[in-house]
Every structure is written in structure tokens, then in C-alpha cells.
Amino acid sequence: MATNIHMVCVPPSIKGMEPTMENLYERSAEQFHTTGRDLWVFAKHGTGWLAVWRTMLDVNETAAQQPPAGAAG
Asked: Which CA distances in Å does 16 have to 12, 26, 28, 29, 37?
């Protein structure tokens, strides 16, 4: 059985975060609902932080359910 182990050395000037995400958006007059996780990497830039990389993981996209006519959104 082969085992692959990946090691990443990260300096203190690099940080990462992995929040869950949920989006509702419209494209070409159709609405979509997307869930998953974002993976963000930030680098220290002066006195602040700069996003240097982002990827979406475990993405699930479906057509959004249309609310009934007259329903509050």
C-alpha cells in the first residue's frame, strides 16, 4: 500500500483559512444555489494582509428554488 504524505512549510507571513460558504446568485436569468468550502491564503503586505490564492472545495451547485409568487424574499 502506497502512502503519500505532503508537508508544507509556511512562514509566519502566510496565513490560511477555510470557511464554509453558501451563495445564491443569478446568471443568464437563472438562479443557482451553491454550497461548499473556500480555501483562502493570505500574505503579509505592509501593515495588512493580501489575498494571494483562493479555491473552492466540495462545491455543490443546484438550481435555486423559486419562491412562490408574492412571497417575501
From this structure: 11, 29, 33, 35, 13
pTM exceeds cut of 0.85:
no
User: How many domains does the structure of the chain reveal?
Assistant: 1
Give the span between the Cα atoms of 14 and 43, in whole angstroms: 5
| 69 assigned to some structural domain | no
Determine phi and psi for 29, rounding to 5 degrees. Answer: 65, 15
Output the pLDDT for position 71.
53
Does residue 20 contact residue 37 with C-beta atoms inside 8 Å? yes
31 is a domain residue = yes
For residue 41, the enclosing domain spans 14-60
